[in-house]
Design brief:
Order of helices and strands of chain A: HEEEEEEHHHHEEEEEEHHHHHHHHHHHH
Structural class of chain A: alpha+beta
Oligomer: heterodimer
Strand content of chain A: 15-25%
Number of helices of chain A: 17
Number of strands of chain B: 13
Strand content of chain B: 15-25%
Structural class of chain B: alpha+beta
Largest sheet of chain B: 7 strands, antiparallel
Shape of chain B: globular
Shape of chain A: globular
Number of strands of chain A: 12
Helix content of chain B: 25-40%
Radius of gyration of chain B: 20 Å
Order of helices and strands of chain B: HHHHEHEEEEHEHEEEEEHEEHHH
């Protein structure tokens, strides 16, 4: 029978060794860099095709045009998920198509295509001739309006570039009567007006379809840019803002202007994208593709999960770090906090709000909450209804804060919704009782302690090295667990006790 | 005085830290299942009465909100009483009524309050405002301690109580907590009450500390602590030592008051006694705990344990 102290030491030691050992194995044998170093932003783009069966449950064929990387983008890795469907990748007219087929479809289904893309070199678009689009057949009055618009814009412009910019502005602002008439009578999507006018004006143009990359977006849809040829070179315009050039965060999916998704035998089909960005070391990016298949360890890494879950785990894996901060601050330093893990939840909220805005919002909400709570305590309510009242007050405060600051133009404050309502209410309740029993001094001590721990936890979690290590070496969590177990058996003095008992140690 | 003490020096002087108290004492000696007996003052009181340990007389218990309506009727015959939550911690939620002023009540501070105040206080107690973890609670109505007049000059408005730390039936360290004006009549050291370390051998004051610094006299009454000698010290130690058998806990703090007629009376027990007793005594607990452990291992007899503790922990001034 070994003592509990020894047992904890052994377990903790084993956990720490396993964690560090696995990490070292990955570093030395698999070539994962220990430090982020030169990093590449790798986007994981998960395309989700969802559709409903037709009433007759007939055969279904889904075709997805796979992206042909341009402008320096490269595709690292492609994965297809096709439960119950036949699947093949075929090539037609120089384009790659993923084809899913099934004899019978009875339930709404979802197909997935996941690609990891990154951009080693930021190039412009390669020169390509743009075939002139066929002119559309129009009603007489539309034709007349379009010609008037073209004539007017030609007069004001110097070439294809300025013509296109002016046209986008005219269509967007809606102060030109002809442009307005065209938009209001157009039966097709309003986007097509732009292309139709350009086609009629004999300006070679086409849609450049792709995805705007935003980290953490779950339901992004396809968007497009306008590509115009002015006789010498290709120009790219944003059809909404007339801004020129290819934005850095735009991943071009399809350049030819053709279809992206063909669905036969199903209805209500949707194509949505979930996006996550990871900062990966350049070295591992280049070699990851081949390795994933070779080593089981990597196959079971977080990278093998669907993108949405990867995004969630990116956050979850940071929580142990915050927990360690709380353990250290409470057991080694001896800070008083209001609620054991309340600082972690506040720190997670800070991750969304950014530090200073978050701190300001927290202090404002808790102060006003305390003021209202002191008024509630005069009403002599029972505990549960009092706390529920505080919850409602907190929600009102959050809404009020968001509305007021939005009107004043501080968009950042809208992230106030990331604060955990119930935790805020309990914080206010506890502080209020503390105030009544031990006075404002103790409220400042505990409130300040909680905030200090929350800020330290936030700093640890938002550290880029920390998020790199936790995400790329999740096995380090085992080591963290070992350290926390060891700290749970720490019987030495806390820093605060060195101060508290400072008068006692002198005549030893 | 240095801003921080060196850990090595603290260790040599045997100062007990919070982490070590939690793991090495409470976790080791106090079984979790016995906590309710100590945390619930009603249960403590019943257990003490079974063993014949003197406790303040219980007038009644308010358990449900509807009983609050008839409370005033039941309080009518009483001129003085104390209302406290049965699971309160750190002396919170204690209402002390020392007398009557017509329909109104006089608090220990001299303030006069109405019936409403008393009812609201009991409602808050029942809702768990003052209790561990905010759980619903019961309110106890007890007899006011008629404390020994000798000690009156050492306390401002409140009752001075004596905390004795006991390990396995061996009294280890003791202090008296004296309420002051700064502590608002409460006997909490961190709120400004004076902690007076007591010599286990004699019941005389060893040192007195307010807000972490030494003091000679009570800041409000001016009484000198040097002359303090707890009357009936023997009785206090015996009572404290008995509590270990009663609770099944080996490491506890017993809070004892001296009643004018009944002598040493058990107020409450604490399964997680704080560390400030070390500051009041200007001395560490660790060495004494080690000796107490040896004493407890060598004898089973309570009187013997007390005698040997008084010998071992005597402070020579």
């Amino acid at each position: 029978m070994i003592s509990s102290r020894l047992r904890v030491d052994l377990i903790a030691g084993a956990l720490i060794l396993v964690g560090v050992g696995l990490m070292l194995y990955k570093v030395f044998n698999l070539g994962f860099p220990l430090l982020p170093g030169e990093s590449r932003e790798v986007w994981t783009v998960e395309s989700k095709i969802s559709f409903h069966p037709l009433r007759d449950h007939g055969p279904v064929e889904i075709e997805l045009n796979l992206p042909e990387p341009v402008a320096g983008w490269q595709v690292l890795d492609e994965h297809f998920a096709s439960s119950g469907f036949g699947f093949s990748v075929t090539e037609r007219h120089g384009e790659r198509w993923a084809v899913w087929t099934r004899q019978q479809l009875e339930e709404p289904s979802t197909l997935y295509f996941k690609a990891q893309v990154f951009r080693p070199d930021v190039n412009g678009l390669a020169e390509q001739r743009i075939p002139s689009a066929p002119k559309q057949l129009l009603e007489k009055d539309q034709q007349a309006a379009m010609d008037r618009l073209i004539a007017k814009l030609r007069e004001q412009s110097t070439g294809a570039r300025t013509f296109t910019a002016l046209l986008i502005n005219a269509l967007r602002q809606g102060d030109d009567p002809d442009a307005e008439f065209l938009l209001s009578t157009w039966e097709d999507e309003p986007d097509q007006v732009l292309l139709a006018v350009l086609a009629r004006a004999d300006v070679p143009a086409r849609a450049l379809r792709g995805i705007r990359l935003q980290d953490g977006r779950r339901r992004q849809t396809l968007s497009w840019l306008l590509e115009v040829h002015n006789g010498k070179e290709s120009l790219v315009f944003d059809p909404e803002t007339a801004q020129r050039g290819l934005p850095d965060n735009f991943f071009v999916w399809e350049r030819g202007g053709g279809e992206i998704l063909n669905v036969i035998g199903a209805q209500d089909s949707r194509l949505e994208f979930a996006l996550v960005s990871n900062s990966l070391p350049a070295k591992s990016v280049l070699l990851m593709d081949e390795r994933v298949d070779k080593f089981a360890l990597l196959d079971f890494s977080i990278y093998s999960l669907p993108v949405e879950q990867q995004g969630v785990f990116k956050g979850l894996l940071l929580i142990p770090v915050a927990a360690l901060v709380v353990v250290v601050m409470r057991l080694l330093v001896g800070l008083k906090t209001s609620g054991t893990f309340m600082p972690i939840l506040i720190a997670i909220a800070f991750m969304q709000t950014t530090l200073w805005v978050g701190l300001a919002m927290f202090i404002v909400i808790v102060s006003i909450g305390l003021w209202i709570r002191s008024w509630l305590s005069h009403m002599n309510l029972l505990l549960v209804s009092r706390i529920s009242a505080v919850v409602i007050v907190v929600i009102f405060l959050m809404a009020g804060l968001a509305i007021a600051s939005y009107k004043l133009g501080f968009d950042q404050v809208l992230t106030v919704t990331f604060f955990p309502t119930i935790i805020l209410s309990w914080t206010i309740e506890r502080m209020s009782i503390l105030w009544e029993e031990d006075g404002p001094h103790e409220v400042l001590v505990q409130g300040g302690g909680s905030l200090l721990v929350a800020v330290l936890a936030y700093l640890a979690m938002s550290n880029s090295l920390m998020s790199y290590l936790t995400f790329n070496f999740p096995e380090l969590m085992l080591s963290l667990l070992g350290v926390i177990l060891l700290l749970g058996k720490y019987t030495g003095y806390r820093l605060s006790e060195l101060y508290r008992f400072r008068a006692l140690g002198r005549d030893a | 005085m240095k801003f921080l003490a060196s850990p090595a020096v603290l260790r040599r002087s045997g100062i007990l830290g919070m982490n070590e108290r939690n793991i090495g004492l409470i976790g080791k000696f106090n079984p979790r299942c016995n906590f309710p007996l100590v945390d619930d003052k009603l249960k403590t009181k019943q257990a003490a009465e079974e063993l014949g340990i003197p406790v303040p007389e219980l007038y009644g218990v308010v358990e449900f909100q509807f009983e609050v309506r008839d409370l005033i009727k039941h309080l009518a015959p009483l001129t003085s009483f104390v209302i406290k939550p049965s699971q309160g911690s750190g002396g919170k939620g204690i209402l002390v009524i020392t007398g009557r002023d017509g329909e109104n009540y006089i608090k220990s501070s001299g303030a006069v309050v109405g019936e409403d105040h008393v009812r609201r206080h009991v409602s808050n107690v029942l809702a768990g405002l003052h209790s561990l973890g905010g759980r619903n609670d019961k309110a106890m109505v007890e007899a006011l301690i008629d404390f020994d007049p000798y000690l009156a000059k050492y306390s401002f408005e409140g009752v001075p109580d004596i905390r004795v730390i006991v390990l396995k039936g061996v009294p280890v360290m003791a202090m008296m907590r004296c309420a002051t004006h700064a502590s608002d009549g409460k006997a909490n050291l961190h709120q400004g009450a004076v902690g007076v370390g007591l010599d286990i051998a004699t019941g005389m004051a060893v040192s007195a500390v307010q807000h972490g610094s030494l003091c000679e006299r009570h800041p409000d009454t001016g009484a000198s602590f040097e002359e303090l000698l707890i009357p009936g010290w023997e009785q206090v130690l015996e009572l404290a030592a008995q509590c270990v058998d009663m609770t099944g806990m080996d490491y506890i703090g017993a809070d004892i008051v001296l009643d004018r007629t009944r002598g040493a009376t058990l107020l409450e027990l604490n399964a997680r006694p704080g560390l400030s007793i070390q500051v009041a005594n200007q001395s560490g607990l660790r060495h004494r705990l080690a000796i107490a452990n040896q004493i407890a291992d060598s004898t089973e007899d309570t009187a013997e344990k007390i005698a040997r503790a008084r010998e071992a922990f005597a402070v020579h001034r």
